[in-house]
Amino acid sequence: MVTPSEKKSNAPVCRLRPCALLQACLIWTFFCLALWALNGGIHIKQFQPPRPKTVPRNNSSSIISAFDMGISDEEWERLQKAIDWPIPDQEITYLNQSTSPVHSTFSIVGLKESYQVGEKISVIITARDHNKDLKRYGGDFFKAKLFNAELKASVYGEVVDHHNGTYSVELLLPWEGQAQVFVRLEHSSEVVQILKKYMESSFPRTHFNGYFEGPGPNKTRISEIVECNIKWGADGNWRKGDCCCEHKDIKTGTVWQCERPKKLSCDKLVRHAGGRLENPLNPFELQLFTQ
């Protein structure tokens, strides 16, 4: 047993400063934790949240999930309900079956002579076709607003689709003075379905030009311009068969298809640029847009 000496020593005494003392305590703590970990005292595993099920798109060439978008399953379901749009309950073959902005009407529920600032006005919209018949399904794209031209003020309301040809909207009164209700049919439900169809399709609405350059006979240079477009997945090729050259963009990973040049090989692509635009609408669909 070693006992402390009672004799005075001439050796210099080293005193720890508060900062040095703290550092020494931290070093000792880390040392102890390291020994504990080596002995199996600590097991650290990286937390990995459960991956939600993937939800297929209408386009079978790709899928998307809530996990890929970085949102919860609840938020995903809410978004799906928000973008859900009713469709006609029958095939539209005549123009007069579409929603008419002339024959559709709206009315103010419980109209009063005056209102207080902060109150809401309830509006009911009734959709009719060009035969003046009531629509039996929803899907029309209506916009409703309250405005004052003198004040240059306006406020929009959220239009609620009741899936039976009627819609409701509440408009807030945020200012004093006169106010008018304005309702506009942006697109009929029939036109909305056309827009949705082409939005989800791989129809090449925009075409591009591919520029190929390479050596020719007698030390000449050959240039060829062919039509190109983006490859829309395995089932959405712009062209079928062995017709084209494929090029993958290194930065974006996008795969491009270009018609095979007649004289040059596929590896002679220099660049691509915008080309012609193509309207995908057939004559009947074009008429629906003008109704």
UniProtKB/TrEMBL annotation:
The chain crosses the membrane at residues 20-38. One of its GO terms (biological process) is nervous system development. Keywords: Membrane, Transmembrane, Transmembrane helix. PANTHER family: NEUREXOPHILIN AND PC-ESTERASE DOMAIN FAMILY, MEMBER 5, NXPE FAMILY MEMBER. This is NXPE family member 3-like. It comes from Carassius auratus (Goldfish).
